[in-house]
Amino acid sequence: MKWFLILWAGPVALLSSWYGLSYYDMSFGFFMLTRHTHDLVFEVYGNVLGIPPETIPPLVARAIALDSLIVFAIIAFRKRKAIAAWWRRRQLSKEGAVAVRSEESLSSAP
Fold this sequence. Notes:
By secondary structure, the chain is mostly helical. Helices cover 81% and strands 0% of the residues. It contains 4 helices and no strands. The chain has helices at 2-23, 35-49, 56-78, 80-108.
């Protein structure tokens, strides 16, 4: 599971950090992080896909969001027994707290 998360989060972090740095032209002396390269990359992808380059970033963001939902659903499915046990403990502690409060209110009545 650890490698699954690393192999998912690594490319997402790399892509989002490149996009953010190149979008704001924070190059630190690297050509790959310049705004010119940013525009060139999306122009090439736009030409290859046959769509306007400015439509690519929202498509990538939606793809990342969908992939993230799938990854978190897989994690939740694998940990469903622990989540169910936590939920039961939480419900029982709430019921116990309500019972204790009602007993306290009955005993403090004149």
